[in-house]
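In the design runs reported in the main text, the only information available to the sequence generator was the tokenized backbone. The following block is the verbatim input for one such run; it is reproduced so that readers can re-run the procedure and compare outputs position by position.
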């Protein structure tokens, strides 16, 4: 797995001043264990938070820094923390780390957990102090066996050093941390489905309200944050709000740095810590090295399989939520995928929708029935057996499964790439319509929303 610095071709070394997430990484890719982590200023932020900061001050600092969730939704972290109850009589609260990284083409959290497990633990320790949570869980994707091994070892090291458990750092504050491996469902990335799974229930999303901050794990106040989000907390506490905000490029509304990447047939696929506001072109050309010889960029996704496709001319968009929104899709996880000119978009979308259909929890009708319907139509078009009206039916499904039409965000994310693919490459879908097919009666397919 590749990691580079801000400058192209590794000309600038990672440093604590510019790379709060990755400056401690070893060149050999091995994990940074407790002694080395502490030698690199590890747990200094936790000691500062425990000794010099009131709990509410920690929450306010994170809020002022503008830290947003790094799992894809981008909700302000400090605001989320502020939803936890202030009532001191509620003495059972939980902090959950969402480490169920199931988004195709995304592996940023895996790198942090495998190579910097103590960074995540320190972030959770400070967060637990701020939120007055006495117990935490890292809900880990079951396939991440190396991450589980490294996290469990790091937890034991932290316990032995008095950084977890009872009376942490002599403060009188107790915090237990457990690594919980999931059974492997994409939907567990949704925080309430994760909570259900942690409780031993079927991984269905819950109705909101009540929100987890009021009624979460086992009915108690709960805060759920992503791995990368929590890993930002120590640097914010250690170095302050103004420094953290200064990391982002001019024009970006998102603060700090972000783990971004590029995969596909690029010369240098990898993962890099970059400031919010870099352009897609910098990411693609300066870091990923552009396309391999003999391939041409056809389109790209900016942040995982659940984001819409963009064209090469959109590479000049800035990589932050608002910058990507200006060109019609979402930042997502920030790990982009290049699609080369040899790829048929119908086949690519059929593959994607098969995944999303299989991973639907089946709780609501539009998602449970709509996604398999899209797969059936895409298979027919891929085989040249599509019927007249099938493309309009697919567009109808994009509308019916869009934001606000389903119980959670699974289906809207699943159909966003489908809608954008038809928008930019409709001719490839039309090529799969059988020339002798009859027009399907309008009542046999959904009405196109907005038509």
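Verbatim output:
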């Amino acid at each position: 797995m590749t990691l580079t610095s801000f400058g192209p071709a590794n000309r600038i070394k990672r440093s604590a001043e510019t790379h709060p997430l990755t400056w401690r990484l070893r060149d050999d890719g091995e994990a940074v264990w407790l002694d080395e982590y502490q030698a690199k200023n590890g747990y200094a932020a936790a000691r500062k938070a425990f000794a010099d900061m009131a709990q509410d001050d920690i929450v306010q600092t994170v809020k002022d820094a503008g830290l947003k969730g790094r799992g894809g939704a981008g909700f302000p972290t400090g605001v989320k923390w502020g939803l936890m109850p202030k009532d001191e009589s509620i003495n059972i609260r939980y902090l959950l780390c969402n480490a169920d990284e199931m988004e195709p083409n995304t592996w940023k959290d895996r790198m942090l957990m495998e190579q910097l497990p103590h960074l995540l633990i320190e972030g959770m320790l400070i967060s637990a102090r701020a939120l007055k949570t006495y117990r935490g869980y890292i809900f880990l994707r079951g396939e991440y066996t190396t991450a589980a091994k490294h996290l469990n070892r790091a937890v034991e090291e932290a316990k032995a050093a008095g950084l977890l458990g009872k009376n942490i750092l002599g403060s009188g504050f107790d915090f237990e941390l457990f690594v919980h491996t999931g059974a492997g469902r994409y939907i567990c990335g949704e925080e309430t489905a994760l909570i259900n799974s942690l409780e031993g229930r079927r991984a269905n999303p819950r109705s909101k309200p009540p929100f987890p901050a009021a009624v979460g794990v086992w009915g108690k106040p709960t805060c759920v944050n992503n791995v990368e989000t929590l890993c930002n907390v120590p640097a914010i506490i250690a170095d302050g709000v103004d420094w953290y905000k200064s990391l982002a490029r001019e024009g970006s509304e998102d603060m700090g740095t972000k783990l971004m990447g590029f995969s596909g047939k690029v010369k240098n696929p990898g993962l890099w810590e970059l400031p919010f506001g870099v352009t897609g072109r910098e990411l693609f050309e300066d870091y990923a090295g552009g396309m391999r010889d003999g391939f041409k960029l056809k389109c790209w996704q900016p942040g995982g399989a659940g984001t819409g496709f963009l064209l090469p001319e959109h590479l000049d968009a800035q990589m932050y939520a608002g910058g990507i929104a200006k060109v019609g899709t979402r930042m997502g996880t920030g790990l982009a995928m290049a699609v080369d000119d040899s790829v048929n978009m119908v086949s690519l979308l059929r593959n994607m929708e098969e995944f999303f259909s299989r991973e639907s929890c089946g709780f609501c009708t539009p998602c449970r029935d709509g996604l398999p319907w899209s797969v059936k139509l895409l298979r027919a078009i891929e085989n040249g057996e599509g019927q007249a009206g099938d493309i309009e039916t697919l567009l109808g499904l994009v509308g019916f499964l869009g934001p606000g039409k389903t119980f959670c965000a699974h289906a809207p994310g699943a159909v966003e790439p489908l809608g954008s693919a038809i928008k930019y490459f409709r001719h490839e879908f039309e090529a799969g319509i059988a020339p002798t097919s009859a027009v399907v009666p309008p009542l046999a397919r959904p009405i196109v929303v907005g038509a």
